[in-house]
């Protein structure tokens, strides 16, 4: 396996940091959970929803799921990515090229990819090509896999040192404003908060801050005054042509939902494990392996997309049904 990493995301850019329990369990099975824990990952026991600054919260604990792992984890994205790259590079049969970008792929038969590195470009033959490029996957576009793209919006976030969340160890969803706010512990004594901005907004609306309970609101306001925001431009992606017999797409490259579900990294881990199982099931037959893989991921992807839309509608609507 050759893994080409074009470059770690900027620390000023928001990206996924939460993993639900199935992803943590899968990484544990692969021997990749312990490195994350040593790098400072913290346990996440579930979520809690707060309807106002005065609400005591509704807990949604992972421990309620029969037979499930009782906790997921959270870690700052840059640390997560670098830690996993370092750990994977130590696995037998795996090569990691850092600062290496795949600029084109010739798909069909035994495929080849062109990789641009600091010492020039190189052609690499590949029995299987996998795009883990995120929403804006260039290889997906080259392969002609089409997607419906939702309206983009901006997420604005801060690190909040010493943030006093009402329920430590849980992800928090605050829904008292027009858009939901997500907060969770991302490191020892550090909380991440993320606000969703409406079209035309360039700063956090006062109503979103007023939906936060004290003393956490004061902690957030201090962080906003003392540090720059981290930003992410986000949009949903629904596959129209969901499969290709020459290319595997994993994670957000193959469809993504509203960040309120915090499901991006968990779904990417699921895709990687599912793809590996499909390749093992059909050794030497990438066409059959990919057909099986895309069939296995289609149902969970629909569930993810539908749940993301439903959660957002329920959490932001003021109808009797939503209440």
Question: How would you sum up this structure, described in words?
Answer:
- By secondary structure, the chain is of the alpha+beta class.
- 30% of the residues lie in helices and 28% in strands.
- The chain is built from eight helices and 19 strands.
- The strands form six sheets. The chain has a seven-stranded mixed sheet, covered by helices on one side. Strands 2-6-3 form a three-stranded antiparallel sheet. Strands 8-9-10 form a three-stranded antiparallel sheet.
- Helix 1 packs across helix 7 and helix 7 runs antiparallel to helix 8.
- It starts with a strand and ends in a 7-residue tail after the last helix.
Question: Could you write a compact summary of the structure shown?
Answer:
The chain is an alpha+beta fold and 323 residues long.
Which segments are poorly predicted (pLDDT under 50) over 5 or more consecutive residues?
A: none
What is the number of E strands?
A: 19
Amount of beta strand = 25-35%
User: How are helices and strands ordered from N to C?
Assistant: EEHHEEEEHEEEEEHEEEEEHHEEEHH
Structural class, by secondary structure, is alpha+beta
Observed structural traits:
323 residues; alpha+beta; 8 helices
């Amino acid at each position: 396996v050759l893994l080409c990493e074009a470059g770690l995301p900027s620390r000023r850019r928001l990206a996924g940091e939460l993993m639900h329990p199935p992803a943590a369990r899968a990484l544990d099975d692969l021997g990749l959970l312990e490195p994350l824990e040593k790098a400072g990952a913290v346990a996440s026991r579930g979520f809690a929803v707060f309807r106002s600054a005065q609400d005591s919260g509704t807990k949604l604990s992972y421990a309620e799921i029969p037979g499930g792992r009782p906790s997921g984890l959270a870690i700052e994205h840059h640390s997560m990515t670098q830690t996993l790259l370092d750990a994977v590079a130590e696995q037998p049969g795996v090569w990691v090229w850092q600062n290496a970008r795949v600029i084109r792929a010739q798909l069909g038969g035994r495929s080849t990819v062109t990789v641009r590195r600091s010492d020039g470009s190189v052609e690499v033959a590949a029995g299987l090509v996998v795009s883990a490029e995120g929403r804006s996957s260039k290889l997906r576009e080259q392969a002609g896999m089409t997607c419906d793209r939702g309206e983009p919006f901006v997420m604005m976030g801060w690190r909040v040192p010493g943030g006093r969340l009402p329920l430590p160890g849980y992800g928090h969803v605050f829904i008292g404003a027009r858009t939901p706010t997500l907060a969770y512990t991302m490191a020892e004594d550090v909380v991440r908060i993320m606000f969703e901005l409406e079209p035309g907004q360039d700063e956090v609306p006062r109503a979103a801050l007023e939906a936060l309970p004290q003393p956490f609101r004061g902690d957030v306001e201090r962080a906003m005054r003392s540090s720059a925001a981290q930003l992410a431009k986000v949009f949903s992606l629904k596959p129209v042509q969901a499969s290709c017999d020459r290319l595997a797409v994993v994670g957000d490259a193959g469809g993504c939902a509203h960040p309120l579900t915090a499901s991006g990294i968990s779904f990417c881990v699921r895709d990687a494990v599912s793809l590996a199982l499909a390749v093992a099931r059909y050794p030497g037959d990438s066409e059959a392996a990919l057909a099986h893989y895309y069939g296995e991921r289609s149902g969970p992807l629909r569930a993810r997309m539908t749940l993301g839309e439903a959660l957002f509608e329920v959490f932001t609507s003021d109808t009797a049904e939503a209440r």
